[in-house]
Amino acid sequence: MVQLSPNQSLKGPNFTAPVGGDGGYIWWYLDAVSDDGKYGITLIAFIGSVFSPYYAWSKWENPFDHCAINLALYRLDGAGGRWAMTERRADQLDRRAHHFSVGPSSLHYRGGELVADIFEVCVPIPSRLKGRIRLIPEVETEACFDLDLKGRHQWRPLAPRARVELKFDSPNLSWSGDGYFDTNSGQEPLERAFVDWHWGRAHRGEDLRLFYDVTNRAGPRKATYLKVKHDGSISETEPTAQRRLRRTFWGIDREAWSDGPEPARVIKTLEDTPFYARSALESQLEGEKVLMMHETLNLDRLKMPIVRAMLPFRMPRRTF
What we know:
Blueprint: E1 25-34, E2 39-47, H1 53-57, E3 67-75, E4 81-85, E5 93-96, E6 99-102, E7 105-110, E8 113-121, E9 128-139, E10 145-146, E11 153-170, E12 173-186, H2 190-193, E13 194-204, E14 207-216, E15 221-228, E16 234-236, E17 242-244, E18 255-257, E19 265-272, E20 276-285, E21 288-298, H3 299-302, H4 305-310
């Protein structure tokens, strides 16, 4: 059974939430797809960046010295897109209950809406990312779920259904679409607790489905299948068939959920790395075709020295 954690129940992101433990972390995650299906976006704001090679090389000493705002713009209908993630020190972090900034980029939660102002430089080919993202929740929850067996890693689907408006000057881009907003936190590095996980979210009619399937290092696999109604109420659903997708370029195994006669179909692999894949899928749930945002994370791959040595090319660190 899914266990609700009683220690967090407030709506909103709470950017001053505690970050503790040995190798602790917290992140806030947003994704969206444009109404015409051509564009996508993800934004992740990190304290104690879980993928940071610099945080790992520091022996997980100080999460506040490893902060970043990661932004990715995608084209679902072809090539193109931009990606930025620059890690910064603690003196570049400013956080209050409704404000979070790392370097020149910031997130504000005001009037029940999330506004992100982005000023970043892309990698590996330098170019500017400048624009604003506005997330307006349509469904909010107060639920918090333990992902592991010891209650050291938690997930809060803050606004699993939202409208997102995007307007960028660089690149010149403007669209709106359905989105999603959540937060994860933990008291140790992900790789200590988990071998891998598969996550997905899909809007379906008036409700939506959330999937979180983790393989623990000690203990059984832990699967969370949720139905969220328009009033924000959450209930467990019966397990949905989880089927293999084709492997990524880097050989990562992907699994996704579909109760139709065919497995989910990969529309486009948005991120393809040696340890992580983000994908846009077409699936079927209760007889309805849905667009599913999906991710697979392989922690055994992440902790390999050769993989960590590759990451600075995508995750530069500013020390001033």
